[in-house]
């Protein structure tokens, strides 16, 4: 039945197939995980902790994301499960919302699996919602339908609304949970009075039928399985993945280890992440470098003065480039600039890492790149010049040190010769 707006004109509806096509903006599954963490750490939710687990429910492997943030009312959950709504303000002080499009949960959850249940409690109400491609397919839905069921948090009694009973029936029929008692038990795994748990099942699989993510190699990590083809694409850039490469450390660990990626996801972490029962040790990239120098970038197009930190990667000189953050969150990693673009010939700029927070640029929808604007191109160009200056300065310093050591050595040899002559 068509629904009409207050203007008497029929409302647009959204095809269920959009849930899948919308999720494909995430070419890399870890970026979908990051979306769900962003939601928990943004202002308005501000979870102190988020737990990421691999669990079994009804003999199905599921991903579970649980946070101790402020939880949601049924109305707020409905908005989160709808498209384009965002109530995230700019945030106070330095804590700004990362999300702008009101699309992160939908694209992130549906990228990881076909179906998701959201359990949320806000102190007064327990609410469960379902976003499920399997359900929509089973009922041959013509538009995206989102069942939402509220319960009283104190009495655990169903709150009767015009669609709560039909929604409860839909969830118990088409999700992994088939009784109201089991449904309510999931709220007990949110240990705080307020918080949210997301359960994702029908995890995406590769063409060979194996899960897209590797849960077995490391019990405390989620990894990208090794791909033994000559070439594959990662986050839009071509890379070779022949088997032995990982052990040679030619690919940054964050590309295939969720734990490594999450350790540098935020410039200043505000939410503690517990991945598979083990805390993620956060790494401040700028503090882990050697021969650190700070510079300032003053964009031509606004009044910002932005700190840029340069230094050498202590762990592996093959991983280098600019780590570009936006509102505290890593958007682009190891972006080559300046000498590094032509480094294959002369190896200039190799090993140098830069760190910058670009709040003046606009991230793309998947938050793994910036929109390719004039401002973005100017920023990369300026960062290239600054990186070249840093490299030249370091090379001159090394040359002076070499000259000094050579002169010292020469003096020592001359002194030894004089001593021998005196004898």
Q: How would you characterize this protein structure?
A:
With 423 residues, the protein is α+β, with helices and mostly antiparallel strands. 29% of the residues lie in helices and 23% in strands. It is built from 10 helices and 15 strands. The strands form 3 sheets. It has an 8-stranded mixed sheet with strand order 5-4-3-6-2-1-9-10, with helices on both faces. Strand 11 (289-297) and strand 12 form a beta hairpin. Helix 1 packs across helix 4 and helix 2 (29-41) crosses helix 4.
Give the gist of this structure.
The protein has 423 residues and is of the alpha+beta class. The chain contains 10 helices and 15 strands. It starts with 16 loop residues before the first helix and ends with a helix.
